[in-house]
Amino acid sequence: MDDLSMFRPGSFVAWMLRLSHISRWNTMSGARHENVAEHSYGVAVIAYMIAQYGVVRFGRDYDPKEIGMAAVFHEASEALLGDMTSPVKYAMPEFTKIYKKLEHNTEEAMIKSLPEDIRGSLASLVIQQQVDPQIKAIVKAADDISAYLTACEQVDASRKDFVEAKRKQRAKVDAHGDEHEEVRAFLEEFLEHCTLPYDSLVLRTDGEAA
């Protein structure tokens, strides 16, 4: 797919909104189906909060808002390509290379569908090869945290397909925490709460959890 004119001019937002139609974990038996728009929202919230820790506590010079928006757009190509499962996507190096090229061409085509005067400001958020490495690292950490939380939810619902996914994602999450102080701070202060049931998140009038 080398024809960068394949997307109708002005269709960028329409493609992004179609992410709500793309299912994730589509080869797994889940208690409910998560779509890419839901996932991207979760990743954006997590990435933004991690970046806030980075700026406030650790003196990072990145912009949390930019990181949040990079997270919103990090799966943009899936609006056209759908969600490819990791075991298939990374099964063979030659296939991975081709698929990454397909993702890149899709991202470029989406940017070309925008008005020329705003393409530049979005290219560095949508085209993954142009995303700042520091921003990409935070978004990737948030991406893996989001996937881990989804796996936790599914395991809690007795979906055995997600037991191994939960274990693998937890290892990835811990590795991000070891590498980035701001990720570790997020994990220490927020992660456990994200796995609690509704009533446990509400305080009684005496200040204790319900």
Describe the fold and architecture.
The structure is a single chain. The chain is mostly helical. The chain has a single domain (12-197), classed as Hypothetical protein af1432 (Orthogonal Bundle). Helices cover 61% and strands 0% of the residues. It contains 10 helices and no strands. The protein has helices at residues 12-17, 36-58, 64-72, 78-81, 86-89, 93-112, 116-126, 133-156, 163-179, 181-191. The longest helix has 24 residues, at 133-156. The radius of gyration is 18 Å and the shape is globular. The mean pLDDT is 94.
The gist of it:
The chain is mainly α. It is 61% helix and 0% strand.
What is the element layout, followed by pairings?
Elements: H1 12-17, H2 36-58, H3 64-72, H4 78-81, H5 86-89, H6 93-112, H7 116-126, H8 133-156, H9 163-179, H10 181-191
Primary descriptors:
Hypothetical protein af1432; 210 residues; 10 helices; mainly alpha; globular
